[in-house]
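Researcher: I'm comparing several assemblies side by side, and this is the next one on my list. It has 226 residues spread over two chains. Same procedure as the others: predict the full complex and return the structure.
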Amino acid sequence: NAGVMQNPRHLVRRRGQEARLRCSPMKGHSHVYWYRQLPEEGLKFMVYLQKENIIDESGMPKERFSAEFPKEGPSILRIQQVVRGDSAAYFCASSPSLESRTEAFFGQGTRLTVV
Amino acid sequence: DAKTTQPPSMDCAEGRAANLPCNHSTISGNEYVYWYRQIHSQGPQYIIHGLKNNETNEMASLIITEDRKSSTLILPHATLRDTAVYYCISYPMEYGNKLVFGAGTILRVKS
């Protein structure tokens, strides 16, 4: 059973470009969470998604950031018109249904560098 | 903001037990205590969780006080590879895994 897969592992974008980060949850997991870790800082919750639904996006910046988890395929975190302050490690986690009361498992992250 | 408090750093000798404390004095009855660790900017790794009983798995033991206001994570025989930032988190499982990470404890295992 493969773990949470994130790609790319490293992404370099110029200011003003778009960044698309992908997350494939563990098999059987229908809940996905995105977290951001700025350099030398802690992990901050961004968004919580189920298949085709955004459950909680209280940690998402109001502009330029969006997330989706379609019925088929990976979850996507999209950052439009990137700025230098978006440079960070972005981690995805997945878990089964809420009823299972189990922990979340994290991927290895995508390191975004904006130049 | 995180609802737990942890010491910023600790040192431990290789082969000895590492005891990492966590205070969660405002924990609610339905909130679990979770421990994760992050080794050198890798993805956080789940360690153990508990509600009110002590728990043990292949990685660690979790001791929760009777009043549930604090807990201790025990790594019985620390190795150099256990050097990491350890996060203690409390949250109600029924609301999903929206984890609120604090600053954690930097554990340095030294030979």
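Model: For your comparison table: The first strand of chain A starts at residue 5 and ends at 7.
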